[in-house]
Amino acid sequence: MPRASLTPAAIVTAARRVADDEGIAELTLRRVARELGTGPASLYRHIADRQQLLHLLADDLATGYPLTRAGRDPLDRVVRQWHAMHDYLAAHPWGARIIADGQYALPSARPIAEHCVDQLAAAGLDRETAVRAYRALWHLLLGHLLNAHPFGHLHGARGDGTDLDRAVRWLVTGAAAT
Q1: Which fold does the domain 66-177 belong to in CATH?
Q2: 95-141 pLDDT tens trace
Q3: Degrees (nearest 5) of the Cα angle 83, 88, 91?
Q4: Where are the domains of the chain?
């Protein structure tokens, strides 16, 4: 009989801790079991394999995306939303890699997509352009998070949050102008 505290939710929480602290490469069922103070066999009652664990972890990530509503005007709200998503994913560095790998199309990510597209439409983009801008903003965000190599950055400096904010504004205003 599995421990009362050993649930899929507890396993995902432990997996998130391991991934946040040690990186996604270190995320194994054996490592998560050690984090929970149990053996890997106990986890197999709840999780079939590492692939399922990664799927559950990606789902957990998606359900945690921040949905911002504050901002002086619609464009400010868009910028705040993408900045909040940047900060959220920066706190879970493995998340950008999972998203970029594209293996998980999760229903739990749909509310953030709809929220972002609605914000882009409120900022003056028609629905089709808003969807395209949403995709482009994901590429921008993931590139910003995954580009750890300084080559190509002026003076070897990495971009900061203001660079991302400026790029989001440029992308949205440019899309609105087309």
Answers
A1: Tetracycline Repressor; domain 2 (1.10.357)
A2: 999 998 888 889 999 999 999 999 999 999 999 999 999 999 999 99
A3: 125
A4: 8-61, 66-177
CATH classification code of 8-61: 1.10.10.60
Closest CA to 161 of 62, 80, 76, 51: 80
Q: What is the pTM of this model?
A: 0.86
Distance CA 15, CA 95 (A): 12
CA angle 123/127/132 to nearest 5° reads 90
Contacts of 30 (CB under 8 A, 6+ apart): 40
Choose among 11, 9, 67, 70: nearest CA to 35.
11
Whether the Cβ atoms of residue 93 and residue 23 lie closer than 8 Å to each other:
yes
Query: If 0-12 CB within 10 Å is exposed, 13-18 middle and 19+ buried, where does residue 45 land?
Result: exposed
